[in-house]
């Protein structure tokens, strides 16, 4: 079941699944698709670390994109934003359009944690205002919380503008994923028949030609990095001052503690600088590499299709030859019987 650009096939539904790490993205996708592994098609040419799942439901070709959250233990926010932005930019230039986004949140969480708020803020910047009407805000892990408590938390999410309230005002809808295939598919079918959407970051990167750092999402992240950079720089200055005093006082124990803290702050400052460099990096080489990979995969698919066509033709010819031989055999038998 191959998939082409949305402008050509209205029965194609492409949905990005977002949320913090551990919000249930993979579980939702696997429950909906019934798959444990990725299924190959042309969109794989530009997913890199994003996972793609494709299946059919009620006559629609459904593609679910599993995206990383902005709270990964081993990856920076800049790295994750760059990856998501690159995928959104590249697929947009190839004519693929999102039907919408499912944003997942653990209803079992007692409060909206800092990482979840940061992820939500970045998500909001990625989308812009108009696309929010194609966003479903889905709560997960209902089996881990009392239904009454869960309902109160859900109401809080909707009533607080900084949480989901603002997005609901722009047309986002709140749904519940209860862990069953039926629940997952009911959520997905809400995108059937909807017009596709262009996210703000796609407009900024492709139509306006902005650098990632100049987009709403990139600018927001860069401001956070600058604030953290200043905070750590101030802390480093204090550590250096304390170090001079420790050396003057010949306090070796304090000196070792301060040296360790100095190294930690130096590493953090370098990481912040690296993230800022990622946001400012020229994307042309990466886009060219994606283009080459895309073309290579398309050629491979075409070659596979041609091989399949030749194989089917050969099988058909062999079957026809067998049928002709059987018919000839019957005719010969009939002639012998008559004689």
Automatic annotation (TrEMBL):
GO terms for molecular function: GTP binding; hydrolase activity. Residues 222-328 form a coiled coil. Pfam families: MMR_HSR1. Transmembrane segments: none annotated. Gene3D superfamilies: P-loop containing nucleotide triphosphate hydrolases. Residues 15-72 form the G domain. Keywords: Coiled coil, Hydrolase. This is P-loop containing nucleoside triphosphate hydrolase protein.
């Amino acid at each position: 079941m191959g998939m082409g650009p949305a402008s050509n096939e209205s029965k194609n539904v492409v949905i990005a699944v977002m949320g913090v790490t551990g919000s249930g993205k993979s579980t939702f996708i696997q429950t909906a698709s019934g798959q444990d592994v990725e299924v190959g098609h042309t969109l794989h040419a530009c997913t890199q670390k994003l996972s793609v799942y494709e299946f059919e439901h009620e006559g629609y070709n459904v593609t679910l994109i599993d995206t990383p959250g902005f709270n990964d233990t081993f990856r920076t926010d800049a790295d994750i934003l760059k990856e998501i932005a690159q995928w959104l930019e590249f697929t947009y230039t190839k004519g693929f359009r999102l039907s919408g986004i499912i944003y997942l949140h653990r209803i079992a969480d007692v409060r909206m944690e800092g990482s979840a708020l940061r992820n939500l803020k970045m998500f909001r910047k990625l989308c812009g205002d108009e696309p929010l009407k194609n966003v479903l805000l889905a709560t997960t892990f209902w089996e881990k919380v009392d239904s009454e408590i869960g309902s109160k938390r859900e109401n809080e999410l909707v009533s607080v503008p900084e949480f989901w309230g603002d997005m609901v005002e722009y047309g986002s809808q709140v749904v519940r994923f209860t862990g069953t295939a039926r629940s997952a598919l009911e959520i997905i079918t809400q995108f059937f028949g909807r017009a596709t959407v262009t996210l703000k970051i796609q407009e900024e990167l492709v139509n306006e030609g902005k650098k990632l750092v100049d987009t709403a999402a990139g600018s927001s992240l860069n401001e956070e990095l600058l604030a953290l950079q200043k905070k750590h720089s101030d802390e480093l200055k204090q550590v250096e001052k304390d170090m001079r005093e420790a050396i003057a006082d010949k306090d070796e124990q304090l000196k070792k503690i301060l040296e360790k803290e100095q190294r930690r702050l130096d590493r953090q400052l370098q990481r912040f600088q690296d993230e800022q460099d990622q946001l400012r990096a020229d994307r042309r080489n990466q886009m060219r590499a994606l283009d080459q990979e895309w073309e290579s995969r398309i050629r491979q698919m075409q070659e596979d299709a041609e091989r399949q066509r030749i194989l089917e033709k050969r099988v058909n010819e062999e079957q026809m030859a067998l049928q002709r031989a059987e018919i000839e055999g019957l005719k010969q038998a009939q002639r012998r019987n008559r004689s």
